[in-house]
User: Fold Flagellar protein FliT from Thalassolituus hydrocarboniclasticus.
Amino acid sequence: MSAELFEQVKSLSLELRSLIRQGVREGVDERIQRRNELLQQWFSQISELIDMTNEQQLFLENLLQEEQLLLEDLQQEQKGIASRQSGKKKLSQYQQLPH
Assistant:
């Protein structure tokens, strides 16, 4: 829909430019008002898309940050498990040494 509105705005703008260059005054004000109404509609639609995109971007950034923190926690937990396993193995080997 926004592409269609843009084409209408573009077409009216080109028509207005042509009429103004030719010195035509009749109907120009009405066309300018119509073009401005279409421009407002178009900007409104574009603004909604931008806002939605920003909202989506913020959501994804927050999601990625949370996942990164969870991944770091998981890595720390795995290091702790590996360290405990290594400690158990060393203790077992020490206990098997003759005293």
Notes: The CA atoms of residues 41 and 79 lie 57 Å apart. The two ends are 86 Å apart (CA to CA). The chain has one domain: 2-96. DSSP finds two helices and no strands in the chain.
